[in-house]
Write a sequence for this structure.
């Protein structure tokens, strides 16, 4: 089976999704669809209130976010960190209320909700004979960023399947439907890097995320906001293999305009260097620059510092028990 065929199930509807075990999920999506008929102002209000409720009820994730923010912004006071955590939960649940736009609205309506900045860089480097890797961070508006790039460019990228097959279908369909006319593709981790490199060399824009902690295997430690972070040193190698420039990118929701600002930052300079630690440090610094565009909208509930250098105590277990 070819790589392309092996991934068709990710974003095509299939009969098994109608199995009775999925009916509760479909019912929930039906209720969600009814909410999408409300004005954006109402949806934002609902998302904010749900976020505040989640922040109070999900103390585990609240404390993970608080630890991450305390580590990354040590100069901020406890109250400032607390306020950022609550704002993050508001942004996260507000973002959930906006997913319907990417999932169900036609292209012209999605474009109305997006403001692009710096996208001319893609054409600039393409005209120079370079390939392009778009380095995204895990922000609450991630799906708007992927839609914004894929609706205008032939793209490919890695994807981590979700456990719930119906929700997995909704996300993958939403992330590929705009690029379908170009033949956009998704690949799972099991596919490895070869298909990503092959498609990027052929001219597809690679949409890549590299900020999760995937464990110590094949990782190096590089600073992220001054904190050692286990980082997979793949981006530099892929940039070299594909003769590509790397453009950091972030999606930030503007609650006043009720639009997502998708900003493409300048390419990472002198990249790759050929040194895994140097390149990982440059990559993490680039991700920092995207996070700082809208700090509260970064997904701080992830365990970015789960893996620690030898001899260092775990940051989550130790701190969680003391909070």
């Amino acid at each position: 089976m070819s790589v392309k065929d092996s991934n068709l199930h990710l974003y095509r509807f299939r009969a098994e999704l109608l199995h009775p075990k999925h009916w509760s999920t479909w019912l929930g999506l039906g209720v969600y669809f009814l909410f999408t008929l409300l004005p954006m102002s109402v949806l934002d209000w609902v998302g904010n209130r749900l976020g505040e409720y989640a922040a109070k009820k999900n103390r585990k994730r609240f404390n993970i976010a608080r630890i991450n923010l305390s580590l990354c912004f040590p100069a901020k006071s406890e109250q400032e960190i607390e306020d950022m955590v609550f704002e993050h939960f508001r942004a996260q649940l507000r973002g959930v209320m906006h997913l319907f736009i990417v999932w169900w609205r036609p292209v012209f309506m999605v474009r109305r909700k997006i403001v692009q900045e710096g996208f001319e860089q893609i054409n600039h480097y393409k005209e120079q004979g370079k390939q392009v890797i778009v380095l995204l961070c895990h922000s609450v508006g991630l799906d708007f960023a992927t839609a914004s790039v894929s609706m205008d460019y032939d793209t490919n990228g890695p994807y981590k399947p979700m456990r719930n097959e119906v929700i997995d279908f909704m996300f993958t369909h939403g992330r590929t439907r705009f690029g379908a006319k170009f033949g956009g593709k998704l690949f799972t981790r099991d596919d490895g890097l070869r298909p990503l490199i092959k498609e990027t060399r052929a001219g597809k824009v690679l949409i890549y995320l590299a900020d999760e902690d995937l464990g110590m295997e094949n990782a190096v430690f590089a600073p992220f906001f001054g904190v050692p972070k286990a980082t997979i040193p793949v981006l530099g190698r892929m940039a070299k293999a594909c003769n590509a420039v790397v453009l950091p990118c972030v999606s930030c929701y503007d609650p006043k305009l009720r639009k997502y600002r998708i900003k493409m930052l300048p390419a990472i300079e002198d990249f790759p260097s050929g040194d895994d630690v140097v390149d990982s440090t440059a990559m993490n610094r680039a991700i920092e620059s995207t996070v700082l565009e809208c700090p509260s909208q970064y997904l701080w509930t992830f365990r970015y510092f789960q893996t620690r250098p030898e001899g260092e105590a775990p940051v989550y277990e130790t701190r969680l028990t003391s909070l």
Summary: DSSP finds 13 helices and nine strands in the chain. The chain has one domain: 3-322.
